[in-house]
Write the structure tokens for this entry.
Amino acid sequence: MADEKEWYYSKGEQKLGPVSPGELKQLANSGELRTTDLIWKSEWTDWRKAESLKGLFPINLQPAAPKSIPSFNTVESLRAANEAAEKVSKKFWFLDLKFEQFATPKLVGFIFASSLLFLVFSGIGASVYLLLFTPILGAVFGILGIFIFVIFYAVMIRVMLELFLISFRIAEHLSHLRNLERLGAASE
């Protein structure tokens, strides 16, 4: 490091400098410059975290080496892997939509209830039409047909929604198993 004042650093939104390499090292040693603060010099195209500059911070302030991935020989290591996956999931929830976040049983219940209401009101409208514009025997058979149609389609909609829920649960479990396999392969 030369003694020229070529280094800049940031504290929040404030850009400070220029400082010499020795002054930058002193800022790091005193704790005024943290590993997460940004630094820059004219040869760089962008600002970088201060921790990326080797030898800037004392060893006890440098970021710790990453822990190794636990092996899957014990229940405890599986629990630790699940906790780590949960932390990542919370940060990047939009990448890993869970069943509960996307298709809840309440949502499916709402879809079923609104579909059933649509079928019932459609059936009532068709029945009124039949009663007003057809002979009574034709209207009775028509209304009976409409009743059977409404029940059949209500059952079909419910079955379809249940299959939808099951497929989401299966996809979620398969995703979880793939993550566990990936973690297991990485630890070997």
